[in-house]
Amino acid sequence: MAHRSRSFCLGISSDLFGVLWDTGLQTLVPREALSRVSAYDALGSLAIAPIGLAVAGPVADAIGIRETLIGGGALIVLSCFAALLSRRYAPCNTPPYPAAATSKAPNLNRRNQAGASVSP
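RE: above sequence
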């Protein structure tokens, strides 16, 4: 029963993180850079994970499993706090990036100079 409740909490928290992360990206990253930033995000999140898995085994053999888990957890916590303390991320309390706030979507209600509708 405890396993199910932990899994449920993990699912809720990961979904909540995903929504907040994507909202932050779309709000704070300029529209013309959003594709590139999302690609780098995916690279850092998914493609580099096998490197960590490859390193974790030998480190656990060298210093022990418990110490490896504690060290990995400490590394994650410290890197999160370092990011929070950085001035570079302080603008998260400011209004959205101007280009992200104003959509560059085509105006489908355009009219030519004579006043007739123009199809896109």
